Sequence to fold (1488 residues):
Amino acid sequence: MDQKNLLCVIFLIVTAGLIISFTSTNFSHAPSSTTGLLDCTDSSSSPLCASRNFLFNKPKRLTPKKDPKPKPKNHDHSSDKPNHPLDPLTVVEINKVRSILSSHALFSSRAPHAFHSIVLEEPEKNLVISWEKGNPLPPRKASVIARVGPNTHVLIVDLSSGRVDLEDTPVRVSGYPMMTLEEMNEVTFAPFSSADANRTIVSRGVNLTDVSCFPLSSGWYGKKEENKRVIKSQCYSCQGTANFYMRPIEGLTILIDLDTKQVIEIVDTGPTIPIPGSTNTEYRFQNLATTTDKTRLLNPISIEQPRGPSFVIEDNHLVKWANWEFHLKPDPRAGVVISRVKVHDPDTQQTRDVMYRGFVSELFVPYMDPSDAWYFKTYMDAGEYGFGLQAMPLVPLNDCPRNAAYMDGVFAAADGTPFVRENMVCVFERYAGDIGWRHSESPISGLPIREVRPKVTLVVRMAASVGNYDYIVDYEFQTDGLIKAKVGLSGILMVKGTPYQNKNHIKKDKEGNEEELHGTLLSENIIGVIHDHYVTFYLDLDVDGTDNSFVKVNLKRQETEPGESPRKSYMKAVRNIAKTEKDGQIKLSMYDPSEFHVINSAKTTRVGNPTGYKIVPRATAASLLDHDDPPQKRGAFTNNQIWVTPYNKSEQWAGGLFTYQSHGDDTLAVWSDRDRDIENKDIVVWYTLGFHHVPCQEDFPIMPTVSSSFDLKPTNFFERNPILKAAPNFEHDLPVCGAESVSA
Amino acid sequence: MDQKNLLCVIFLIVTAGLIISFTSTNFSHAPSSTTGLLDCTDSSSSPLCASRNFLFNKPKRLTPKKDPKPKPKNHDHSSDKPNHPLDPLTVVEINKVRSILSSHALFSSRAPHAFHSIVLEEPEKNLVISWEKGNPLPPRKASVIARVGPNTHVLIVDLSSGRVDLEDTPVRVSGYPMMTLEEMNEVTFAPFSSADANRTIVSRGVNLTDVSCFPLSSGWYGKKEENKRVIKSQCYSCQGTANFYMRPIEGLTILIDLDTKQVIEIVDTGPTIPIPGSTNTEYRFQNLATTTDKTRLLNPISIEQPRGPSFVIEDNHLVKWANWEFHLKPDPRAGVVISRVKVHDPDTQQTRDVMYRGFVSELFVPYMDPSDAWYFKTYMDAGEYGFGLQAMPLVPLNDCPRNAAYMDGVFAAADGTPFVRENMVCVFERYAGDIGWRHSESPISGLPIREVRPKVTLVVRMAASVGNYDYIVDYEFQTDGLIKAKVGLSGILMVKGTPYQNKNHIKKDKEGNEEELHGTLLSENIIGVIHDHYVTFYLDLDVDGTDNSFVKVNLKRQETEPGESPRKSYMKAVRNIAKTEKDGQIKLSMYDPSEFHVINSAKTTRVGNPTGYKIVPRATAASLLDHDDPPQKRGAFTNNQIWVTPYNKSEQWAGGLFTYQSHGDDTLAVWSDRDRDIENKDIVVWYTLGFHHVPCQEDFPIMPTVSSSFDLKPTNFFERNPILKAAPNFEHDLPVCGAESVSA
Fold:
């Protein structure tokens, strides 16, 4: 079967099925194997079987040569045991939670119910910090977010005692939990159950069998969305292309009840807008490759480590590499969580605390078009869709280099069944030809010094595909103590249909001003709409212990006194310790620059500097939306680039625990406005990495990766350069490599 | 002999020699081989013999294993011929220039004379553009800057006719030419010819045999420096360390006449400041390596290309790789110059112009301490020291990865003798495990799509060691059309001696304010002084031809009309074409952001967008100095982050042609204030990359590299993603690598 029509055929079958019987139960994927793991071997259409689907639908290779290396057998998670207080729930534990809850009163009623999140309830921080390998684990608990009928519940399940505590009934803040993959899946079919929707689609000149509809979170804009979980569906023609995102049925928005999956409202503002064609939209290699393309002339290149990687992953989750160690786990909401980050100090030979926990707390992606089909597109990808749930299996050799190791995610389906997301995270050593440090003496000194050290780093990577967009998140550890958090944007644009085929056709008003397109004409009838991306990181730095302070080192011009110096001015550094949260609300400015240190004032270096790490912003962007605009109220955590809050276990998600349709009453901005003390406290720093994206034709039909990053950099943390004693490369250490392996 | 005392012993010998006979002639290194090349085989102490010195003083290896691969023979440049209109002067041509000038009236007088620069006088741009391979080269000319007695002359020498044109006699702008390596070398000895200087040094408790003095450009602060070329010398104790920069004889500044090398003035404001100790200052591997250091636990890692690199360097200077081609040459002032940059368009199969010429035009490095020994430290490393002259031979396997190719620089000595700076530039393909583009379909679409393309780039690298500091400059070419210019800072800090051994000892005033240190206490008695780095790039973009316009695409908030939308606001892009230079003077702002496009309005894409490239600033910093402060007047080219000027062959050096002691009357800021038309003209964009550097203990005794960059990114230049058809990695293409080569 032609692959590009696969989706449409699935829709045809399913739509037919829906006519016979439409049920809204969420317990459709019962565990069918003895391990209690979701069984994907029957090529099930379950959205949870991502990696298996891929295997079953493996595209044909252009090059028929066989891979010489046998694939290693996938890790069997059915007997995994937790080894560390922060280890994620295992398959056995998730099944136990499901078993405990199946006999709980809440779930014994006939009301439909679904588990929107089943994750480890992390032990209290002090218990985790005092835990050492060999000690018994603190009691294992699960944090469960469930919907029962119209209510959301947060439950804590004690795995050994079986006790279930209801945290709040119902929870009082606005908003709903992260969608389940199952309901996102069901929403894709929902429009086809509405005769009106079908009629409207057909009236746009598209066959129903060629249509694919996608669930777009609705945001929150007032009463219309009140007291009902709603979602909007946007439909595309998938005729002639796998890249249906480029063929929007523009202006058609279908409002759906997310609980019942019933169509509530159909709006079509675009009957006069043609559906863009499929020409030039293909991006799959096997359908594109040509021998004339110059970019194929690159010879193979690879990062090689003849003696193997230098890191180990102990007990499934504890990564040890060079001078670093940290706990790494996949998370359905945050993607990956890095905890208990410690670095070895070459002077004291001790391992010192740097960060208790770091992760992507929330994303905010507002599109910049106020029209009916676009105004609501203001996504919060973590809290609405699950940044980890959307992280697909990484592609070896391409998503990560050959020397990478992979880690699977173990998550729970809406019915509580555990499932495995294979190869969700990769870990690899990176040598990019960069220089760790160097110095050559100039010939005038007469000293024959040429000292250079290569830079080798360790990268932890995941890639989330939230619908059309792909986010690549890297945490990169340098031997000099620096941690770089990097976000790469790729994937496919969310585009808008337009009658225009050429910029010259755009209407002008009397003054000659062009009609506002809200973006760039990328191809005939396609506008790439302007949008922003904000990725807000939670960084619970613990520099040499939990009690830290945030210091703004402001750089400012100082004029000299008359006669003091031939210089009229210089720049000086003024240190201000943040007393309360308001002092930690930071807007960056080129002409009023500062450094931002997290210090431990109780611990100083030999010469008396407080030990510290600094947050080093690099290229970023700030939201220009009105603070009273509903999306900006919900995304108010982007109102500053940096915030500092006192550690509070319940303040993890910058857009609120329940982000979906939230009103902005539970955001980082609200918490921070309480203006609590933050001096010499256990503090959390929040950093927002921003991107403005004005699309250009090069982003069509798929976008070259654009990246930005920020650093956590040791600042008077070590007594001296911690890689002073690092070794240079020697020829005799390097691998002997032969031609490609095929000939073997 | 213990290497760390080598310098001091050299000084002892030379100082003794100076007592017998001190001459200031600059013609001390006569060519002694038949090729007319400076002969370094006698282990000469000439500062021009940089790479040979290194070979003769090769440090002993900790690991005695022998390199298995024989070193390729170095390129013999004696018979090089120019192949391209932009090829640098060859050895033969430089000798010819010297020969022509030796009979010129200017140099026949007894007045001392020196050549401060002998480089190719590039042909007129239109001649270069119209030239094609196989055509005869345009007439070869040399541009010569010479000092004869107290006067500076610019001469154009026609190599075929032997005609010499004096451009200006004497040149009317302020300032002096770039120092020669020979005079920098002689200045290091100058203090020892002064009995007063020697007495002062000895009074600080240092043996003269343990002292090393370095030439620091004086800046310009008014009458004192008028009508005389002066330089300041700062001295260090090199007792017990090769890292003498950490042992300043603080407060001692020796003013020297740069023409006569005579000491003019000695100021010592630091008799009470101890010289910091040598403990912990060592950084050379063979003196440091220990088996207990954890950073040695990294297994070897290498970028491998079993079928060899994918690029070629044709005719010594024309680099061709993937979809790129450009001309590459070392330059004594700019470091490297990249010209005639063209990219292949996969749609049209044509090679299209992107940039006529790009290079580092100037650097500005002001230190932030107004006291007598520090106020003048406001370096302009290109115009004062020669960014290329200070670029030492790169160290294979460490400065550049194993798969790199190297290019030598051929420069002229002060007497006109050509000399070779080996391995000054490297070119390599870089695979860092990054992703060119990707998209995975979410399981809800049912499409089994996992398309990922690895990112492979081409890097051109040089590293200049301007005294203590090391600048790594990379030009990185991506197959998606993006060019990244990246500057890495490493090397050794310029530090200040202090009586303080601990931060607790710092004096406080009545209000409890600490005495201003102007930096950070890095170790006992050592302050790392706050400073900035600005690197200003000349970017003569020619997007599809010479006539281009600069467009500021301003992103601004637009409030919606009442009732227009549930949204209150959105961000819109407003295009403003710069009419004159003032419109192209750009200060960056987070809250008033813009994109900066260089477009060809005569050439549009299929859908009507003008073809363009955008300058994408990333992390950077702005100078906070008073615009009336003398160093900021001279460095006024950093007053904006972006400037746009009409192409003018004479406007190349942002700090002026004669930067040394310049008054700021010939800077980019002065040219730009003429406010010339820049719409639809041949325009040049200038971008300044800035760094604020507040040192920290990790920078001691040598600094881990800190990098920043900016991008030139195609924006509606291509019809679509130009790497759409790029191939993924396949296992069978990758190398088969064995263990390390030693065992063989």
In short: Chain A touches chain B through 231 residues (CB under 8 Å). The domain at 181-284 of chain A is CATH 3.10.450.40 (Nuclear Transport Factor 2; Chain: A,).
